[in-house]
Each structure stands twice: as structure tokens, then as C-alpha cells.
Design brief:
By secondary structure, the chain is α+β, with helices and mostly antiparallel strands. 27% of the residues lie in helices and 23% in strands. The longest helix is centred in the C-terminal third of the chain and has 26 residues, at 505-530. The protein starts with a helix and ends with a helix.
Length: 531
């Protein structure tokens, strides 16, 4: 244990007896308003829906090599059933090289696996076919050039995806323009079809620095009067930097199961663009007025997103020049012109000791903030200290300021590093649980709200009690294994055929094991500190 943590835990242990008693001081104090940690509204985690594995192996089907003069180009040759799929054909010469002289009509037979919808004439030795596979299994696709008589066979495998199917239908020129300049915020018209329902939309790339990653994230703004479960703005995250693709999904699963916080719904989806599988994506519920209304929260209350540009001041809730607040904190709801946020930053959080405690529970939803910090300490997310969070408060209600979690992919062992940015593959388990607070003379991630709360020994002890509870409940070995096993059961073949993910198929399960090992080691780390 480092000297900094030892010093901190000296203060914590001095207050530990207050934790389960509600932190009540002698003669009563502001802590009397806080219930005992065990009496907080902890939810009872629900079991995941059942999922029976199709196979005990996490591997692509073994397929015979294509033969003959006309072959399917795709090196995987594994396709989902039930959706229209475009497959590519190529003509070969006698030596096995591309034969660009072949042109004309091609007949295609799927060997009983489905229906051929359309086969474009071959031009320059290439053709595309639209098919719909209707049965899961292994089939032999036979292609025949009707004029020249060339033919060939390609064995393919098909599977029924267990994920929701989303498909983007977009002008290829628009898609090319978006990808050519990913930071341009180009919005174009398109159609997004979600489990068979087509919705008019405009689409743009989503994210910040991740926009130039090989696998893109997308935001859909649905047409007037259209929505998905009450939401008009939809986000699909690629999660490319995370080799498992599931850290962000898993983090929100645990937050919803283990805390009472308003946390985004998430689901893994099978995403297609213009009839071609694009990859496994994470549908994350956007935090906006629809999100607030769905949870009985005031959509007229103040909500700010801390998402500063790289060159701007961090969202560490320290005073800024008035003109800088809108750059660092984007107003997402409410109409207070930053007056309330400036009051929090420049007045409430700068009150002297004593005055700060006396008004604390009127200004800040203390237990909401503490359980937010505790959950992120358990999954070891440090990315939230200076960005990637929302602040919300309804001035018309007694509920104080609280954090809403967002963008939790740098968690479960992964941290940003100067050397490798967000792509560092090392697994860290000893990240400071008090991140956001600095002792005198220290440097590092800082947040004035976190600092003021965790500077109070009563709240530091309360925060740790919450973290220990979460680490042994929703972040237990059994719960983590249940979620990861369920994810591979539901998304296994889609994960295997996602050729835009960073991990190879051979290493993928090992990357999931890193999450399992992290949660066990992190719990031990927190337990050792608590002693």
C-alpha cells in the first residue's frame, strides 16, 4: 500500500464505526440525515434471461475450401439467417487468378439453405448476389456462368443470430463521405430498420477521438413522430478500443442491477449496413430529455454533459471564465444559462468547512453521488473524473445535484495511459479508489465535488462501505461470470464473424477471462485497503 493510500485510510478507519450507523455524530449533526448504508434502497438484482448454448465451442465452423472457376469471395463464408445478405462472387482462370474477362449472367444455387433474390450480371469477373438464408447449417453454394459454362462451389455456414438486428440503409456515397472526414459531423438522410421496422432517420458518426477508429459508432436522429421505446435519438457504439466489446455494456448492467441510479439501458445488437454485416454494436440509451422523462425525472431541470474538447479546460468542477463553461459543459436540458452550474462550482463547493457541511444535503444528493463513485471505484473507471459524466438537478424539487454515468468502456482493468492512450492492453487492478481527490502537493485527476465529499471522513467511510457491498454483490465472481457467459451465449457467432473487432477469435475468450480475473483481484485489493 502506498503512503498516500495509507494516510487516507487512517482517516477512514477513524470514522469506520459511523458507517453502518448512518455516520451520526455526538449530539447529532448533518450526518443524521443520512440513513444507514444497509438501509439504502439497494435493488435486488434480477436473473438474466435464459440462454442455452448452441455449441460448447467458441469457434467458426470448419468449411471445405472453395473449388472451381466461380467462388464466393468472403474468407469467412458464415452468414446469419432471416435477413437479406449480399455475397460477392469472383471468376478465376485455370491458374486460380482473378479472371477479369468473364462477364454476363450467373446462376446461383444455395444448396437448400435459402432463397436467391437477385444476382447481378458479372462484370470484370465480379458479381454480387442478394440472398436470404432461411436455415441454419452448412450448405454448398454453386455458381454457374450461363454463357461461358464456368462453375464453382463454395461451402458456407449459416446461423440464427440471437441479437436484435439493426440495419442502416444509406447512400454509399454518403457513407464514404462520412468516413472520409469522420470529425466533420456530417449528417445525412438514411433509413434504420430495427427488428423489421423501418424508421426514417438522419445519421452521423458518434463519439470524440474514437471517430477515426476502423470501426465507427453511429447516432440516429429519427424523423418527426418516430421513436424506439420512447427515444427519438439512438446511439450504437462500436466499442472498438475494447477487445471484448462488452466492458461498457457490462458496466451499465452492474450499475442498473446494483444501484438505484438512473443509468442508461444497453444491449448488444447485430448491426448491418446496406445488407452486409458490420459488427456487434452496443445500443446505449442516450441521456436526454426522453431519458429523464422515462425515469420520472424533470426534463425541465438542469442537465449538463462534461465533454470538453481535448484543448479545453477539463470538467473538474473548478471555476472557469464565464465564456468557458459552455465549452467544457454542454447544456442538455433546462434553461438556466449556466447560472446554477456556476453557483455549484463557484459558491457551494468553495464554502469553508462547517458551512459546506451545514448545507451539503440541501445542495447535493449525497448518497446518489457516493454510490456513483463507489460503483466506478469497483469497476475502476477513472475516466469520469474530468469528463464523460452528466450533472442533473431539478431546481423545482428538493433533489440536489447528482451524477449520471456515461461512457464506461475504460473499466474492468483498462486505464488511459500516456503511452498507448485508450488502447493500452495492460490490466491494472490497483487504481486509486479515491481518484478525483488530491492531497496537498499532489497532481493528477481532480474533481472539486469529489474532493469536497471525500475530504469528509464520514463520507469516505460511507463510500467504502458502498464499494465493498457492490464488490461482493453485483461484481461477485459468480455474477460477472454469469454476464460474460450469457454474452457469449447470445452473441457468440456474431462476435466470431465481426471482422472489425480488435481481438482475434483465438484470443477473445482470454480477454473475457481478464475481466473475470480483474473483478476478483479488485475486490481483494479493496478488501486489503479496508483492513
Amino acid at each position: 500500500m502506498g503512503s498516500r493510500l495509507a494516510w487516507r485510510f487512517g482517516l477512514v478507519l477513524a470514522a469506520a464505526t459511523a458507517t453502518t450507523a448512518g455516520c451520526v455524530g455526538e449530539g447529532g449533526s448533518w450526518t443524521d440525515e443520512l440513513p444507514a448504508v444497509d438501509d439504502l434502497p439497494w435493488p435486488t438484482p434480477e436473473a438474466l434471461p435464459p440462454c442455452t448454448p448452441v455449441s460448447s465451442d467458441f469457434a467458426l465452423p470448419a468449411l471445405a475450401a472453395p473449388g472451381g472457376r466461380l467462388q464466393v469471395v468472403d474468407p469467412l463464408r458464415v452468414y446469419p439467417t432471416g435477413v437479406v445478405t449480399t455475397i460477392d462472387l469472383v471468376a478465376l482462370d485455370a491458374g486460380g487468378s482473378h479472371d477479369a474477362t468473364v462477364s454476363g449472367d450467373v446462376q446461383l444455387d444455395l444448396g437448400g439453405g435459402g432463397d436467391v433474390l437477385e444476382v447481378a450480371p458479372m462484370v470484370g469477373g465480379e458479381a454480387a448476389a442478394r440472398v436470404r438464408f432461411t436455415a441454419a447449417g452448412t450448405f454448398t453454394v454453386t455458381a454457374t456462368h450461363t454463357q461461358g459454362g464456368q462453375s464453382g462451389t463454395s461451402e458456407v455456414a449459416t446461423y440464427a443470430t440471437r441479437l436484435p438486428v439493426w440495419e442502416l440503409t444509406i447512400d454509399p456515397a454518403h457513407l464514404d463521405a462520412m468516413e472520409a472526414d469522420p470529425f466533420d459531423d456530417l449528417k445525412v438522410p438514411a433509413t434504420v430498420t430495427i427488428d423489421g421496422t423501418a424508421l426514417a432517420t438522419t445519421v452521423r458518426l458518434h463519439g470524440g477521438t474514437s471517430r477515426d477508429f476502423p470501426k465507427k459508432s453511429f447516432r440516429f436522429d429519427l424523423g418527426a413522430g418516430l421513436d424506439l421505446d420512447g427515444a427519438n435519438h439512438l446511439i450504437l457504439r462500436a466499442e472498438w478500443a475494447d477487445k471484448t466489446l462488452v466492458r461498457n455494456w457490462l458496466a451499465f448492467e452492474l450499475l442498473r442491477a446494483g444501484t438505484w441510479l438512473p443509468a442508461s439501458g444497453t444491449e448488444l445488437v447485430h448491426f448491418r449496413i446496406n445488407e452486409r454485416f458490420y459488427g456487434v454494436m452496443n445500443h446505449v440509451e442516450r441521456i436526454d430529455r426522453d431519458f429523464l422523462r422515462a425515469r420520472g425525472m424533470s426534463a425541465n431541470g438542469s442537465m449538463y454533459e462534461a465533454d470538453p474538447p481535448r484543448e479545453a479546460a477539463p470538467g473538474d468542477l473548478t471555476p472557469l471564465p464565464p465564456e468557458q463553461y459552455p465549452i467544457t459543459y454542454q447544456l442538455r436540458a433546462g434553461a438556466n444559462g449556466y447560472d446554477d452550474l456556476r453557483r455549484l462550482v463557484e459558491e457551494v463547493l468553495r464554502r469553508p468547512p462547517g458551512d459546506f457541511e451545514a448545507t451539503l444535503t440541501d445542495e447535493i444528493e449525497v448518497d446518489d453521488v457516493l454510490v456513483y463513485l463507489a460503483a466506478l471505484a469497483v469497476i475502476q473507471n477513472h475516466d469520469h473524473v474530468r469528463k464523460n459524466y452528466y450533472l442533473h438537478r431539478d431546481p423545482a424539487s428538493p433533489v440536489g445535484w447528482r451524477f449520471l454515468p456515461w461512457d464506461l468502456d475504460l473499466s474492468f482493468g483498462h486505464l488511459y495511459t500516456e503511452e498507448d492512450d485508450v488502447q493500452d492492453e495492460r490490466i491494472f487492478v490497483d487504481g486509486d479508489p479515491f481518484v478525483g481527490q488530491l492531497d496537498d502537493g499532489e497532481t493528477g485527476p481532480f474533481n472539486q465535488l469529489i474532493d469536497r465529499l471525500l475530504d469528509l471522513p464520514e463520507l469516505r467511510a460511507r463510500f467504502l462501505a458502498m464499494a465493498r457491498r457492490l464488490a461482493t454483490s453485483v461484481a461477485s465472481d459468480e455474477r460477472i461470470d454469469e454476464h460474460l457467459t450469457w454474452a457469449t451465449c447470445r452473441a457468440g457467432m456474431d462476435l466470431l464473424t465481426d471482422d472489425r473487432k480488435r481481438a482475434t477469435n483465438a484470443e477473445y475468450l482470454g480477454r473475457l477471462d481478464e475481466i473475470r480475473a480483474f473483478t476478483s483481484d479488485r475486490r481483494a485489493f479493496l478488501d486489503a485497503l479496508a483492513e
